[in-house]
Amino acid sequence: MLKSWKLKEVVLMSLFSVVFGIIYLLFLHAGNIWAGFIGPIAYEWIFGIWFIVSIICMYIIRKPGAAVISETIAAAVEVLLGNAVGPRLILAGVVQGLGAEAAFAATGYKKFNIWVLMLAGIGASIFSFVYGYFMGGFTVFSTGYVLLMLGLRIMSGALIAGVGGKAVVDGLLATGSLRGYAITRTAKGDARV
Amino acid sequence: MSDVIQFIDVSFRFPDEEKVILDHLSFSVKAGEKVVITGPSGSGKTTLLYLCNRLYPENCDGVMNGSLKLFDKESSKYAPGEVNHKIATVFQDPDAQFCMMTVEEELAFTLENLNIPREEMDGKIAAVLELTGLTDFRNAVIQQLSGGEKQRIATACALIMEPEVLLLDEPISHLDPYTGKKFISWLDELQQERALTVVAIEHRLDLWDGFFDREIVLESTNRVNELMTRESSIQGSQSLYVEAVHNDSFLKPVSFHLQKGEVAVLAGPNGSGKSTLLKALCQLIPAKGTVTPDRLGYVPQSPEFLFITKSVRDEIAFGGGTEVETLLERLYLQNVAEAHPFAVSHGQKRRVAIGAMLADGREIILMDEPTSGQDAASLSELYELIDERARQGTTFLIVTHDMEFASAIADSVLLMDEGQLTGKFNAESVWASEDLLTAHHLLKPKGGTPREVCFA
Amino acid sequence: MKSALHNMNPSVKFLIITICMFTLAFFFNPWTPLIVWIGVLLVQLLFSRINWKVWTLFMIPFVIMAFGYFWTTLVFAEEKTGPVVWTILNMEIREVLLNHALALSFRVLAFSGLSLLFALTTKPVSFILSLMQQMKLSPKIAYSILVGYQFLPVLKDEFVQIQQAHRLRGATQKGNIITRLLNMRKILLPMLAGAVRKSERAAFAMEARGFTGEKRTSFYHIIGIGKLDVYMAALFLMLLIVSCASSSFI
């Protein structure tokens, strides 16, 4: 699978992960302590931010595997940056990435419109929730509470990762800096039709 | 002697563009030659170099016609990476050509790529560090080194492959002239020791001082005029008062005044506190002392760091100024007014940044290293811009290492060393004083052409 | 002895810790995770020279998070049977429920303890090299990750500069987390545009030095596996077995 990948595409995924790693570190750490008091539901509404890298990379590079590889790299980079959650993050990254990847695979890696990107966000939400359900022992919670968490996470995945990811890439595309990646080739192709 | 690189009727274009970058190009380089390829931006210098080390056409899906032979073998017949240890490259950006943390790891990475047995690695690393005089840097963290040191490390990484050809991609364009010159003489010694073939692309030959045997000119556009020494546009009244500005850590109290329409250059060795002073003046970092007026304009080395909107017009209008259309016109930005500020040329970005500052009522503009990495055409554009604005009454304080540029543009020169302002000098007196120049790691400018000669 | 954890093979350590975590996920009694957490502390006391001040700083948020788990379980749990053991504010806390709540919060502590053990005793670069040498991670991915890591200081510096430039233009309003998220986009754009440029340059530089992404035959830094790894793995497994067995005794 990796044979068809250009080195610059893999390095791009890694550098994007570092950029988001810095954003996570510098933006989201303030006020975290208070969120802790609220319990497992505190982060649900913002959970989509963890999936955004996979959707951004797939939307730009458009090769099978882009979502799962980028999300795994992002998790590994997080570990290197000194995230204390450490090894757990890598597995979570693989699972989330598979969730997003599933949505793209289901559409045959041909469509990259807003709905598919939102679907990828939802896929990542569901996969990561199942993983979290098992690891975090959510079985003990009442069904209503679990459904509330899941609902919040799906919304966050669709909006922050799907809509937000598209907005970020479209902004980047407008700057003209994505020349030489799959996204510009199709953008140009669309324009000709 | 045999040809190591041979272009026969080579044409090249990028897949999504009509324009042909290289058009039926033929030339060859013999073993042991030192060749420089020149041409303005966009003439295909970089493309040509990337064809020589086989980064192109694969990496950009480019379309190549004609025959390109490396060591008498068609370049397309090599496997990826196969020819790279014989043809090594030093790139221009000192920040973006490493992948490991330390010098030793980086050199080892290169050896691993060549599948050198582990037992031989230590010896080879020690030998190349010895050869390049970098033994003390073996365990240094690369990103903590200066630009000049990084370029030497990059050269060592190229040499450890024991290449026959060394490609140089504008290796000194991100270095200040003083460091650049030292890099060149260092390279000259290495070349003589190893009898390397050197192929470089470069837009500024003045520092190379006869290093090359031969120049290949890619596209002879009308040569940009040398910068002429500008006439002062000082308009008498004081515009900037700086009193005892300092911070707790590094910057010692700095005081000076600038007049309306004055163009001042701030110079000094790397790490002397020039950028810190600029940031302190516009209150980007906490500092004590007084600055009048308190709102100063600031243009960072990458002007796009300032941009927050989606079009050039919105960018200039962002601060709520009323003269947006006038500014667009005066800065020649009307035809890109609707373009994304990130998507315009570097020179235009700088104009947008200055426009945004002026629209904000920031009449004093501080510029951080606007000359770094710029070719002659863009330096000349920068010169015109500053000259024109200064005549309209804008005051400039410009950080630059480029004394050619400074001698052409500056009314006065502020020199800094170790966080302290040595003083504010009349520009002429600085160029006349060897002591001041060497103490601040500056090269004496060769002298701008006087105005009359240029018009002749 | 004090360096055993630091000298352990990072991949082995990673696998062992992952096994511990997955196993813990099956247990809903308070003792199993608690024993693991205490065990992990003891192992670190004996076999590492970590900075306990740093450890405490990292642990505090997890303790708070554990508390968050504790009360949410009490309030939102499914199971409402068993004898009442405790009454606060007219709420009857039953034994099964209390056990569940404690189990989940101790699980948070145990997970964090294991993660911190890994984070504080493993060199990032060695971890990636080990993934490549022992776990057959593709060099293409491994070195791309290392490039990213090596760019961290450069990108951090850029982040600060962009923030400063935006502040000068009056573009950073302080506000709630939503406005901060929206503002983040403006900082992201120049950073990502720069990242695209840098990644191409770095990739080219790597290829120009003969990097093909193929498996390599020799490594300069060899990350080995030895007897130490067997002993340490056995130690962790023993701890895991003891903790699991405790659920049936206590």
Automatic annotation (TrEMBL), chain A:
The keyword Ion transport does not apply. Keywords: Membrane, Transmembrane, Transmembrane helix. The chain crosses the membrane at residues 12-35, 41-61, 114-134, 146-169. InterPro entries: ABC_thiamin-permease_prd. This is ECF transporter S component. It comes from Sporosarcina quadrami.
Automatic annotation (TrEMBL), chain C:
PANTHER family: COBALT TRANSPORT PROTEIN CBIQ. The keyword Membrane applies. The keyword Nucleus does not apply. CDD domains: EcfT. Pfam families: CbiQ (PF02361). This is Cobalt transporter. It is found in: Membrane. Its main location: membrane. Keywords: Membrane, Transmembrane, Transmembrane helix. Coiled coil: none annotated. The chain crosses the membrane at residues 12-28, 57-77, 97-120, 230-249. It is a multi-pass membrane protein.
